[in-house]
Amino acid sequence: EIVLTQSPATLSLSPGERATLSCRASQSVSTYLAWYQQKPGQVPRLLMYDASNRATGIPPRFSGSGSGTDFTLTISSLEPEDFAVYYCQQRRDWPITFGQGTRLEIK
Amino acid sequence: VQLLESGGDLVQPGGSLRLSCAASGFTFSNFAMSWVRQAPGKGLEWVSFIDSGGNTYYADSLKGRFTISRDNYKNTLYLQLNSLRAEDTAVYYCVKGAGPNSIYDYWGQGTLLTVSS
User: Fold this and answer.
1) Helix (H, G, I), strand (E, B) or coil at B85
2) pLDDT, tens digit, for every residue of A20-62?
3) Which of B49, B108, B109 sits opposite A96 (nearest CB)?
4) Which residue of B has its CA nearest to A33?
5) Is the backbone of residue B110 left (phi > 0), alpha (psi -120 to 50) or beta?
6) SS3 of A25, please?
7) Torsions phi, psi for B75 (to 5 deg)
8) Which of B2, B107, B111 has the highest number of chain A CBs within 10 A, making it the mutation to test binding with A?
9) Non-local CB neighbours of B1 within 8 Å, separated by 6+ positions
10) Is the peptide bond before B40 cis (omega within 30 degrees of 0)?
């Protein structure tokens, strides 16, 4: 099973700052990596797929990069609505796995 | 796109349950579907996947206890859960793949399964 490790577990930043979230895979997933955002009391929402492609309706302040085992989700300038939990997910191999999540909180 | 789960309940350990997900707003038969669960206060855990042809995959820890299936005529996804344990307590989400794959572009609101005596 491919293990995805996200860091940091919690990230405390202020609106307007840049956020950098990391996801590391235990073996290569090529670019078969997605990112999801989950706000309290809401269902997860697809942000990025195949490492660097924004999903429909996702604003350009969100960007993704990486390949192989190291991936990054960057939010260029945090808006109040961006404070949430973020999960990465790989679909390179079965079973599909999610990272444990990074909580992005307001400083 | 709408995904409406049902069937969540309070079940005793060792019991069984079937979850359903009624899909609408897209051609159900053309898309892969999955179940993802989330225990209270915890992260997302992938459960199972079924493609348009009926091929299935499961989380290693759940093989043999859970069975995913679909009825393309009724536009409905199912998850049969057997030999339930306390650790199966979670919100179960029905999730649509963006095509034949496991890029999850739409999520249902979830149905809560509680396993407790």
Assistant:
1) coil
2) 999 999 999 999 999 999 999 999 999 999 999 999 999 999 9
3) B49
4) B103
5) left
6) strand
7) 55, 45
8) B107
9) B23, B24, B25, B26, B96, B106
10) no
